[in-house]
Amino acid sequence: xxxxxxxxxxxxxxxxxxxxxxxxxxxxxxxxxxxxxxxxxxxxxxxxxxxxxxxxxxxxxxxxxxxxxxxxxxxxxxxxxxxxxxxxxxxxxxxxxxxxxxxxxxxxxxxxxxxxxxxxxxxxxxxxxxxxxxxxxxxxxxxxxxxxxxxxxxxxxxxxxxxxxxxxxxxxxxxxxxxxxxxxxxxxxxxxxxxxxxxxxxxxxxxxxxxxxxxxxxxxxxxxxxxxxxxxxxxxxxxxxxxxxxxxxxxxxxxxxxxx
Amino acid sequence: xxxxxxxxxxxxxxxxxxxxxxxxxxxxxxxxxxxxxxxxxxxxxxxxxxxxxxxxxxxxxxxxxxxxxxxxxxxxxxxxxxxxxxxxxxxxxxxxxxxxxxxxxxxxxxxxxxxxxxxxxxxxxxxxxxxxxxxxxxxxxxxxxxxxxxx
Lengths: 260, 151
Description:
The structure holds 2 protein chains of 2 kinds. Chain A has one domain (about 40-260). Helix content of chain A is about 85%, strand content about 0%. Chain A has helices spanning about 1-35, 40-50, 55-80, 90-125, 130-135, 140-180, 185-190, 195-225, 230-260. By secondary structure, chain B is of the alpha/beta class. Helix content of chain B is about 25%, strand content about 30%. In chain B, a hairpin with a 4-residue loop joins strand 5 (about 95-100) and strand 6 (about 105-115). The interface of A and B includes residues 155 and 159 of A.
């Protein structure tokens, strides 16, 4: 008896899982179609860029400087044991551009912006605003969801580049101003250790993929939330948990596939 | 949601700064050159370039004057290296190029040594005197062979 309920539960969960995947795919297609078809919601997309991009600037820049500075300190300590402090720029640069920049930016972005988007859409569901739009024959996916998703998608690569630049600045401050490395050598090893094809392009690709993941997860979680107070909180928490996990797993997959 | 000109301005500045950062990473760090390679191009042929790669620096007396933009085999199976140098550089025709190593990680670069002739190298010409990369294995091999001969 007990066994069969366990198997029942497993079957139920499996069907749920596949159904969810299908719904997410359908939801994604609806967003893509809404974005491709006129009319284009430029005004609402700009507002979304403001909300998730401009308002995330402070945390992204501050975290960038801090992460860069810490990498500078740690790298200097470890490299100086081999007398290789001169390579600090290369060590800091490669780790930031390839891994830390895209991943940390996406995680911070999930906490700062994606959770807010999920909560906003979920509370619209709770207060019946999306139903109100449907009553006026306005498609909520076209009017509410897709501008927010597009805004998040556009913003993440920009935030990633800013994060990396600020982290370079933080590492430079620590390495050159505080620990007394040669500034020219720091920048030269940093710049000459990387190429566009192998490093910068991968970084931008990663942040683009993360942008797709985060925007879909956040809007889907908000859109499908239960119309209760618990629904809003579950949508927000679910967004952060699922998006963070997805970012880390995808990061591993991209890194392994590209062999970098 | 209200729209205001100030918000538009802020969003515009944010996008500009973001693309500026991407541009910095692409061109400055990534080393994509947006200049037409119209710098001063010279060639140098080496027997063995060791681990010399593209974008390796080229220096005169330790001062960076350009970089390696191409490495290929010529018809005699020697390594032909293309150097992109600053156009203001004036090198006598009997200048020499040698591959050296810097730093603990063994980054290789090309050191140019100006000669004494009055004629200067023109763009597209080849540096005649070259010195290949120092290969530790080859040095040891030579040493072992010489020791064998003495026995």
